[in-house]
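Example complex used in Figure S2.
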Amino acid sequence: MTDVPENRVLVPIEVLRGQDVPEPVIETFSSASVVLLGYHEIPEQTAPDQARMQFEDQAQNALTDFETAFAEAGGDVSSRLVFTHDPLKTIERVAAELECDSVLLLNPAPVLRQILVAISETVNVEHIARLVGDVMADSDVEVTLYHVTPDSEERERGERILETAAETLEEHGIDRDRIVKAVVADDEPLEALLASAENHHLVVLGESKPTIRERIWGDVSETIAGQTVNPVLVVRRDYLEVPEAELEEAAGGPRG
Amino acid sequence: MASDLPSEGSGTVTDDATRHEGGTELERTIGLTGGLSIGVGTMIGAGIFVFPGLAAGQAGPASALSFAIGAVIALFVALPTSELATAMPESGGGYYFISRGMGAAYGAIVGISLWLGLVFASAFYLVGFGEYAVGTLVEAGVPAGGGGAFVILVGVAVGVGLTAMSVTGTENTASLQNAVVALLLGMLSVFLLYGLLDSFGVFGRETVPQELTPEGYLPILTTAALVFTSYLGFAQVATVAGEITDPGRNLPLAMVGSVVLVGVFYVLTIFVATSALGSEALEAAGETAIVEVAREYFGRPGAVAILFAGLLATLSSANASILSSSRALYAISRDRIVPPGASKVNLKYGTPHVALALVGGPVVLLVTTGQTEILAEVASFLHLVMYGLICVALLAIRREDPDWYDPDFNTPAYPVLPAIGAISSFGLIAFMQPLSQVIGVFVMVGALGWYLYYARDVSLKGGEL
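Predicted assembly (721 residues):
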């Protein structure tokens, strides 16, 4: 498949606050192209340049250490260092500039053997599955494909979506015996996802289209990253949009 | 050389970031709304909530003209400042342009004057805040014993509080500032619209008939010099030029836009205030005269609303000025005009605690004088010198036309407009009280003395690097 875009993962690191990149994350993601985004958040009282003059060397050294660790694990890695008042804006800008299709929000991960891939019906299932497959093919992680529906009658529909994902994963090097499918009926999708995440070591989800509420209170993926103890791989919105017709086809006909 | 700009502090400018040699980037995070909010938020506290009574007392209804003159001068400076800022979108604003265009000696005088000018301005706003605090107490039926002393007490306490919050607070206050500015503009629009309709007799009420210039023509100019403090905010937009997104577009719009916006509000406010109450009643009401105007129109609820707005506006202006002053100190310490320790940032809060203390300390000291008019005039004096020199710097840089100079925005009517800007800025100083002039000159001579003593070997002019 020559038309498959290179998987490029942006890894933001709050570099002067002692944030660490877990060893298993470095190993697993050495199969992708990784951009380390070292950032330092500064309050509005301070000019970014003022902080740069004082902390640039310290920050650059810390970032270089991480870069070396990725390179030694055999990864294709590069880095950027940004001083910013607004890390979210910085992460979005750099991700767009460098055409990263996903962003890895770090959390501690002592091991990385089981990952949870949340699949909703509004996103490009195949893109997420392809990305996960490409990154995880050489590892021995187990992938749980996960779909929450508020209505138990929608179960079958969920199964279909997950089957599509499983097929794509298989095409991209993940054997069937490493794939688990889970359709869960729950009124509180977010809570259910967080509960399931506890038994896994990494969560993969698609960035949702921001609703007004999310614009104000932050994206769901950020919320999950803040509430779970796992790293979260967010597949960026730009890579998830699919034409309406294709979406219907993938889900097995228009919704009743 | 990767950088062809005139300083080691500069780098490649894009719409969203500045990229330095070595690859480190500084994110730009303030958009047009944020820029306008800095400009308007800094200015609106003074012109509407402190000056109307003082100005009407001096020049009568013609004080509306004084505000208009101030707006025109500010505009003549805002346009050249916009051009320079789009060519050098860096922290430091006026200081940066003058030091790069005219050399370190002028830079030192302007940089130190800007720091202290903003200290005077902050103290002025805090005294204004104190007046509103007393007004609020009186309204609530609490006898504010010892009036003046209480004003100072409140001003000092709030000055200490704001400084401490700036050092330890890492919450983002920008969105709060935007909300405050939007709320103030909304309230004032309702108030002014009603007042205007009333002034033209729509509600059939008698307005106070009065001669336009009861005190003659000279007070129009002296009042313009006094109230010019109401226009000090637009240059604060330039002090955060390094953080403005799409600087080529947003900087000129934010600076010129905020001057025009507050100028219109000021002129209308004075017109409405003098029509409603007459200059003598306004003068008697002093710093909180606008509260009495609101009472005239809307009764007690109007007075309470404007008291509340006045507290918000003076507080937001004081806070913005303290932060700008600390930025000014950073800019001169970056260039080694004052010791670099002055802009040290602590890792715990990420704030420049030394600079903030060097601002907050003198501010509190000045608040204890309680001299609204002197504080305002000295602040204006020190800013007007910088404004005049900004115009001169534009003329100087355009004449030399160095390779690095490539502004996105060009001043219209060059060279006439910047020349008028320079002459009128310097000219306005002549109409101030002698004491303000003496203090202003004293600060500038002190700054020059400091330069000769400490920073003589600093070279900053664009061409010299």
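The CA atoms of residues 5 and 404 of chain B lie 5 Å apart. Chain B has one domain: 30-464.
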